[in-house]
From TrEMBL:
GO molecular function: electron transfer activity; iron ion binding; iron-sulfur cluster binding
Keyword tags: Electron transport, Iron, Iron-sulfur, Metal-binding, Transport
Upper taxonomic lineage: Bacteria, Bacillati, Bacillota, Negativicutes, Veillonellales
Cited function: Ferredoxins are iron-sulfur proteins that transfer electrons in a wide variety of metabolic reactions.
Protein name: Ferredoxin
UniProt-listed SUPFAM superfamilies: 4Fe-4S ferredoxins (SSF54862)
Pfam family, one: Fer4_13
Transmembrane segments: none
Residues of the 4Fe-4S ferredoxin-type domain: 1-28
PANTHER family xrefs: FERREDOXIN (PTHR36923:SF3)
Length: 62
């Protein structure tokens, strides 16, 4: 499982707070981005929680 943050991100930072191992803010664009590698199994629950909590629906599973 991988995640991708699309252009509808509003930069609220919730995903970074929920799962900082997978999501981080891009200081230049002001929006979030995810690690490009497959999510380690141990992080899948918190990454999914971040996806479900995103107020913009900007986190896609790929
Ligand atoms: Fe962007 Fe959603 Fe993360 Fe907020 S929770 S920073 S809107 S991807």
């Amino acid at each position: 499982m991988k995640y991708h943050v699309n252009e509808t991100c509003i930069g609220c930072g919730l995903c970074v707070a929920t799962c900082p191992a997978v999501f981080k803010m891009n200081d230049e664009t002001g929006i979030a981005e995810s690690i490009t590698a497959d999510i380690p199994a141990i992080m899948e629950d918190s990454a999914k929680e971040a996806q479900e909590g995103c107020p913009a629906g900007a986190i896609e599973s790929v």
